[in-house]
Design a protein that fits this description.
With about 475 residues, the protein is of the alpha+beta class. It has 19 helices and 10 strands. The protein has a domain of about 140 residues: Heat Shock Protein 90, CATH 3.30.565. GO terms for molecular function: ATP binding; pyruvate dehydrogenase (acetyl-transferring) kinase activity.
């Protein structure tokens, strides 16, 4: 068994050293005081120790059993999977199993997940393999590559599931994999920022790559978490009938006003240390259809509302806090409710955005200077997992450990599957001053994935109107957004 955390940490230091040297001798991106690498970053490592690991700056680090030429170019197993097509599936088809649960439905669902996930992972691994050298060799994207192959390897070796007991063990494995690989989202975002610093991929190509990777990640996790939810429900209440528009336990019936208030309080709490006069912070004024409800995944909903409201509150504070001692102008939300959609218009008096910058707010590509500042903030987010603890055998086979014993499989399933780790929660809980620059691009992908729309209008010198339209999933559940593999 190989524990890679220490080796990864040392390799990261070597990578930082290489990145500094590359920047220092580059006329396009000179090192500045905004660099995310602190000037005395080598203080905790001897130069001799760093030198031992410089060879790991190449495309195939010596510690890895996965990142090697044979794996990249002679991996017949991966090639065979990458030729397969994902199975188009709608949210209604996925959730239809939950209307009346039976043993055979649970087993069929388990085998669908078992077969489908490695196909989708193989497609993304091939995408990573075909990136330009300077991109695929990025430290963070290399972590994603190893993580994806770890999951791919684990899933493809799972035997056909034929009993509920086998499914319970399968659910424990899936749950552990979801939690073990939660760090991928932060690595993906940090990789995009480092690609921006090196300017090794055009902005349009970077946006396309990030969009595909994020959509695929959402699809895989929804498919997996939906099966965990169905299995948990079956073990608790087999053959229990659900309402006609039931979409699964991972989708909650959300009251729009309640969730806006919850998120606004989260934003204000994060701002309190930097803006102690909390009673002066902008109020959130909500009008329109105050009874609007819709089904949605709460972590996704909260993240989208959080990034939009955070921007509006921050802009309002910067524009008005030094001009008045009174309560700052409110952030206003108007709710428009229809049969198939719910629309939110979030308006602020934060001074607006210059029109030549408006299109850039949706892009993952940043200027090198902006990217360095954001990376510095990523490294200081409390509790954010940056290094994997994935384990492999000496031969490179993936190891997935679960804590439950055979006698406790069914009873522990609820605890194993009920609450998944979420990187989005860490992003939302970060201190106010840690600006990442990735919030709106991320929101745009999440909104688009769920067949919604997100746009912004700006009146420079006054403020912004952000329009967020979400589809009511019960009415759009026959669309096959889950085929975005």
């Amino acid at each position: 068994m190989i524990n890679r955390s220490t080796k990864l940490s040392t390799r990261r230091a070597a990578y930082n050293a290489g990145l500094i040297l590359a920047c220092r001798y580059s006329t396009n991106t000179p090192i500045t005081h905004h660099s995310y690498i602190h000037g005395d970053f080598m203080s905790s490592y001897s130069k001799e120790e760093i030198a031992k690991h410089l060879k790991n700056l190449g495309p195939f680090p010596t510690y890895s059993n996965i990142l090697n030429p044979q794996h990249f170019y002679q991996n017949q197993v991966l090639l065979e999977y990458s030729k397969k097509l994902p199975h188009p599936v709608s949210l209604r088809q996925l959730a239809g199993y939950g209307n009346t649960l039976t043993k055979q439905k649970i087993i069929n669902s388990a085998n669908f997940v078992r077969i489908e996930i490695p196909i989708r992972l193989a497609m993304r691994i091939r995408d990573l393999q075909t990136l330009p050298f300077g991109v695929v060799n990025n430290f963070h994207l290399a972590q994603i590559y190893e993580s994806y192959y770890h999951s791919f390897n684990a899933f493809r070796k799972i035997s056909k599931i034929e009993t509920i007991e086998q499914n319970n063990r399968f659910c424990e494995t899936v749950s552990k994999l979801l939690d073990d690989h939660v760090f991928n989202l932060s690595h993906l975002m940090m990789g995009a920022l480092e690609v921006s610093i090196a300017q090794s991929l055009p902005q349009e190509d970077l946006d396309k790559f990030m969009s595909v990777m994020l959509r695929s990640r959402i699809s895989r996790r929804v498919i997996a978490e939906e099966h965990l939810s169905l299995s948990e429900n079956y073990n608790k209440n087999p053959y229990d009938k659900k309402p006609p528009h039931y979409l699964g336990e991972i989708f909650n019936q959300c009251n729009a006003v309640d969730h806006f208030n919850i998120v606004a309080n989260m934003v204000k709490s994060s701002m309190a240390p930097s803006f102690p006069e909390i009673e002066r912070l902008p109020d959130l004024e909500i009008d329109g259809d105050l009874d609007a409800t819709f089904q949605f995944m709460v972590p996704h909903l909260h993240y989208m509302l959080h990034e939009i409201l955070r921007n509006s509150f921050e802009a309002t504070i910067k524009t008005h806090s030094k001009k008045t001692s009174k309560i700052l102008p409110p952030v206003k939300v108007t709710i428009v409710n229809s049969d198939k959609h719910v629309l939110f218009r979030i308006s602020d008096q934060g001074g607006g955005i210059a029109h030549d910058k408006l299109k850039k707010i949706w892009s993952f590509g940043k200027s090198p200077d902006q990217a360095r500042k954001s990376l510095a903030n990523f490294h200081t987010i409390p509790g954010l997992q940056l290094y994997s603890n994935l384990k492999v055998t000496a031969a490179g086979s993936s190891i997935v450990t679960t804590e439950a014993t055979d006698a406790l499989h069914a009873s522990s399933l609820s605890e194993q599957t009920g609450r998944k780790k979420s990187t989005l929660e860490h992003f939302m809980a970060r201190p106010y001053e840690l600006f990442l620059g990735m919030g709106l691009p991320m929101c745009h992908v999440y909104v688009d994935y769920w067949n919604g729309e997100l746009s912004m209008n700006s009146l420079e010198g006054y403020g912004c109107d952000t329009s967020l339209t979400l589809s009511k999933l019960g009415y759009h559940s026959t669309q096959t957004q889950l085929d975005r593999a």
